[in-house]
Amino acid sequence: MLIDGKAIADQILATLSNDVMTLKKRGITPTLAVILVGDDPASLAYIKQKQKAADFIGARVVFSHLSSAISKANFKKLVLEYNNDPNIHGFIIQRPVPENLSHILIYEKMNKNKDVDGFLPNSPFSVPVAIAVEEILQNAKCQTLNAKCVVIGRGETAGKPIADHLTKLGCTPTIIHSQTPNPKQIIKSADIIISCVGKEKVITSENIKQGVILISVGIWRDLEGKLHGDYDETDIENKASCYTPTPKGVGPVNVACLMQNLIKACMLNKGG
């Protein structure tokens, strides 16, 4: 069964639009600030999706598109400006970030109450993609408590926070990375596989068991610019009990969960 991520996202956004209407009656418009350094095409596409979701629920996006040549001082100045602006309720620094600026994400103490991406230590927010995976598993009526769950990849923006979030839900995921011995054997025995790699054919019908649940967080583009996940859907569709497609799988739910965090941040920063 194909899991319709867009339908899940639309349900979340519909609820959030009601929350925004309530906030606007109090004179508050939830506002997300986005900082992008450089011209990465994928980052621009992600920001466009965030803008579209914000428009749908009635929130506002302030987009700062900075040159890759921006100085550390000017970058820090903008971060501090958003920290202190009471009309900015949440803000994100779109990754990837140039190496000379990346330490500011952690060490310059971005306001954690506005960290809607959930990447800072002790952030009050869960990473949106981790919440998205939870929403998808709930939609698939999947019980994670006693399931054998495997997360492929341990990156800071996907694999690791997803595994951490599943642990909080009472699951004990196995994380597979480039140094893991016998990865095929582990994958073959899994009830749930969450793949966060972003490469072709990370998962095939030959290395999964019948009835497995597949979630592809990782995405990649072919030479024509078409998006794909970590498996060929036509290859696994008769083996998996349910799976997310690419596009319209994890991506829309991820963006909807970011908007969810924005509303929470708005309430947090405005005293409820």
Description:
- The protein has helices at residues 5-25, 41-57, 72-84, 99-102, 104-107, 128-139, 159-168, 183-188, 233-236, 250-269, and strands spanning 31-37, 60-66, 90-93, 149-152, 174-176, 192-195, 212-216, 220-221, 227-228, 240-243.
- With 272 residues, it is α/β, with parallel strands linked by helices.
- The protein folds into two domains: 14-115, 3-Layer(aba) Sandwich (Rossmann fold); 128-251, NAD(P)-binding Rossmann-like Domain (Rossmann fold, 3-Layer(aba) Sandwich), CATH 3.40.50.720.
- It has a five-stranded parallel sheet with strand order 5-4-6-7-10.
- The chain is globular.
Supply the CATH architecture of the largest domain.
3-Layer(aba) Sandwich
Name the beta content range: 15-25%
Helix content: 40-55%
Number of strands: 10
Radius of gyration: 19 Å
Order of helices and strands: HEHEHEHHHEHEHEEEEHEH
- The H-level CATH homologous superfamily of the largest domain, spelled out, is NAD(P)-binding Rossmann-like Domain
Number of helices: 10
Low-confidence stretches: none
Cα distance spanning the termini: 40 Å
What structural class do the secondary elements suggest?
alpha/beta
Q: Widest sheet: strand order? A: 5-4-6-7-10
Silhouette: globular
Q: What is the mean pLDDT?
A: 93
In the CATH hierarchy, what is the class of the largest domain?
Answer: Alpha Beta
Q: How many separate domains?
A: 2
Give a short account of the largest sheet. Answer: 5 strands, parallel
Kindly summarize this structure in a few lines.
This protein has 272 residues and is of the alpha/beta class. The chain is built from ten helices and ten strands. Helix 1 runs parallel beside helix 10, helix 2 (41-57) packs across helix 10 (250-269) and helix 6 (128-139) crosses helix 7 (159-168).
